[in-house]
Design goal:
This protein is of the alpha/beta class and about 200 residues long. It has one domain: 3-Layer(aba) Sandwich (Alpha/beta knot). The protein is built from seven helices and six strands, in the order βαβαβββααβααα. The chain has helices at about 45-50, 65-70, 110-120, 120-125, 150-160, 170-185, 190-195; strands at about 30-35, 55-60, 75-80, 90, 100-105, 125-130. The chain has a six-stranded parallel sheet. The longest helix is centred in the C-terminal third of the chain and has 15 residues, at about 170-185. The mean pLDDT is about 85. InterPro entries: DTW, DTWD2/TAPT. Belongs to the TDD superfamily. DTWD2 family. Keywords: S-adenosyl-L-methionine, Transferase, tRNA processing. This is tRNA-uridine aminocarboxypropyltransferase. Its EC number is 2.5.1.25.
Length: about 200
């Protein structure tokens, strides 16, 4: 028998995170394209990011028929947050620059690349990437490479650059609580056995 879920954060009611989710405005618009396989994942950080940002939209799918329409937001310049040789490092914009519509694919690297393959408009967008980033706080997943972040962490890092000196750290409060809750549920001994060696 499944446990009742909070309709907003989709967590079990006994572990609802809504009280920790902030309500933050941003000049940057964030469009999160989530692969369907991520929606039922216990650590669904993209949903937390979308709930905490007023100027964010979360769309789930593999092929997005309305993508061209979503990208044509008046007053925004669309770009894709995705690493690669052609990706420009995000820098603090000039106050006169057009705000970005930051498109963020959400899924494993393989699933994210599949989204780009299935949506040529997405693959054609100018790409941006983060500069050097610290270690991920996502202690329950093995990062495929150094500097790999969860979706919510990548969004926070990007907004910290684009909207400095504003801070978006509050977005990570429910994320941290989610991680701590998962560790508590599995037990400290199990966590250390399976994940402890990944700690710095």
């Amino acid at each position: 028998m499944s446990r009742p879920l909070c309709p907003r954060c989709q967590r079990p009611l006994t572990h609802c995170l809504c009280a920790l989710i902030p309500d933050i405005d941003s000049r940057t618009r964030v469009l999160i394209l989530q692969h369907p396989s991520e929606t039922t994942h216990a650590l669904n950080t993209a949903r937390l990011a979308a709930l905490g940002l007023r100027n964010a939209q979360l769309c789930v799918g593999e092929v997005f028929d309305d993508l061209a329409q979503w990208l044509e937001q008046p007053g925004y310049r669309p770009c894709l947050l995705f690493p690669g040789d052609e990706a420009q490092v995000l820098t603090v914009p000039a106050k006169t620059d057009t705000p970005l519509l930051l498109v963020v694919p959400d899924g494993t690297w393989r699933k994210a690349r599949k989204l780009l393959h299935l949506n040529p408009i997405l693959a054609a967008l100018p790409r941006v990437r983060l500069s050097a980033v610290g270690a991920s706080r996502y202690r329950l997943r093995k990062a495929p490479e150094a500097g790999a972040l969860s979706t919510i962490e990548a969004i926070v890092e990007a907004l910290q650059v684009l909207e400095a000196p504003s801070t978006f750290e509050a977005l990570l409060r429910p994320f941290d609580a989610l991680i701590e809750g998962q560790i508590a549920a599995m037990g400290e001994e199990t966590f250390l056995r399976n994940h402890g060696h990944r700690q710095a």
